Amino acid sequence: MERAEAGAAGSSLVHDQVVPAGSSSSRVIVHVDLDCFYAQVEMISNPELKGKPLGVQQKYLVVTCNYEARKLGVKKLMNVRDAKEKCPQLVLVNGEDLTRYREMSYKVTELLEEFSPIVERLGFDENFVDLTEMVEKRLEQLQSDEPSALTVSGHVYDNQPINLHDILHIRLLIGSQIAAEMREAMYNQLGLTGCAGVASNKLLAKLVSGIFKPNQQTLLLPESSQDLIHSLNHIKEMPGIGYKTTKRLEALGISSVRDLQTFSSKILEKELGISVAQRIQKLSFGEDNSPVTPSGPPQSFSEEDSFKCSSEVEAKNKIEELLASLLNRVCQDGRKPHTIRLIIRRYSSEKHYNRESRQCPIPSHIIQKLGIGNYDVMTPMVDVLMKLFRNMVNVKMPFHLTLLSVCFCNLKALNTAKKGTIDYYLTPSLSTTSRSGKHSFKMKDTHMEDF
DNA sequence: TGGGGTTAT
DNA sequence: ATAACCC
Question: Is the dihedral of CA A368, A377, A396, A405 positive or negative?
């Protein structure tokens, strides 16, 4: 659909437009992408790091680094040894604890939600915002006696000229102004810089946000969308086409975006299934009708640690550590998880992705004690997790794990108890005074006395 | 490859 | 429960 309208670009009068205002076929989407996010958070925590080449380390990897480090040859996900070799002055900070990154990440999302509530998170450092409605409102308010009212903010992809008689151009231009305001607010209120891309769908917004890097923004006009997608050197660079699909496409002789565009739809559907085939072939044309889905609060909380583990005692200690952190997080969230999952990774040379998991409902008597801090929820939870562990790992046989992870999911708002019902008065978290939800949980803090 | 997340099957 | 995707 979006392709069809792009063809009508020659028309210059607003009333020529086939697309009615506010139609779902013409959207304004912004993708906001923070610059080297973890490194920025670290430089805010410790301003002495500013100006120095900085890497954030997890285990033996530099997972991200600031631009000073990049200039000196450090890359994302580079081995610490290689990074130090390339850049001996590199300063490293440990980034295995994501707490501060996660908190800052949600501050960014919340700031963006003030512009429009339709904000979708992608990882900790990217957000999509659907600006369609906001742009419509600004268009209605527009008094065209101010000359600056219709000036684009930031770059335009390919330097394509804007046609002020083309309503699609005007809407995207206003989107670029909102994007600039968002970046200003992020900097003024949170001290963070980032890039933004404005386009008519999520795929194109995401691709175009990376064109001018760091701390810049780019607008994509519909006439340039084919140039943008063909600027990709390989289909693996297309968001939505991952490792597995890339391998299967390569086996079919498909490696460029144009290969995918021109490949037989029928054969692609046979090979990948109709759903994936149709979706990725549309992506290859720059078409993406997926909505910006408001993320809201997280669907799950998890903590993981990669480490060598070959005994049940080691496993139990790690599980207690992971669980203690999770309990603090869940406590602050206010909602209660109803399912718990244990994930392991077994040591085995090959096998790209090998993880196994077991999950079970959290016993209701434990759920009730969550969030009020004073009852010992650790011991019964650890018991549950160790049962899951023994269900996956035969502890009577030698084993070697390289990762343990604990996940709380199936989060429910509060409990369904309503004021005035029996349930309400039988529910400790509701009928007692404790409603702050901010009790810290310390692992080795032995006895938590009863009320 | 880390330490997270999501949705679909 | 796993598999795919994203960062």
Answer: positive
Contact between A63 and A42 (Cβ < 8 Å): no
- Of A370, A366, A367, A357, the closest CA to residue A327 belongs to A370
Give strand B nucleotides closer than 7 A to any protein Cβ. 1-9
Phi, psi of A326 (to 5 degrees): -65, -40
At residue A77, what is the residue type?
L
Which one is catalytic: A2, A42, A120, A126? A126
Per the CB < 8 A criterion, the answer to whether A336 and A375 are in contact is no
**Residue A349 pLDDT level (bands cut at 50, 70, 90):** low
Asked if A303 is an active-site residue, the reply is: no
Measure the CA–CA gap between A381 and A448, rounded to whole angstroms.
15
Q: Among A128, A127, A125, A126, which Cα is nearest to A56's?
A: A125
Give pLDDT tens digits for A194-219: 999 999 999 999 999 999 999 999 99
pTM of the model as a whole = 0.89
| Beta-sheet pairing, A29-34 with A194-199 | antiparallel
Distances (CA, A) of A432 to A45, A191, A311, A327, A372: 38, 40, 42, 20, 10
What pLDDT, on a 0 to 100 scale, did the predictor assign at position A19? Answer: 53
| H helices present in A285-427, as ranges | 312-333, 364-369, 378-392, 422-425
Whole-number Å distance, CA A111 to C1' B2?
Answer: 27
* β-bridge mates for residue A33, sequence order: A126, A195
- For the residues A413-431, what does the mean pLDDT come to? 46
Q: Give the CA distances from residue A257 to residues A163, A223, A287, A335, A413, in Å, rounded to whole numbers and listed in that order.
A: 28, 17, 13, 44, 44
Q: Which two three-digit tokens encode residue A236?
A: 């693996």
At a 7 A CB cut-off, the residues bordering strand C are: A 122-126, 238-246, 341, 353, 356-360
Q: For residue range A49-77, what is the model confidence (pLDDT) as tens digits?
A: 999 999 999 999 999 999 999 999 999 99
Percent of all residues in chain A with a pLDDT value above 90, rounded to a whole number:
81
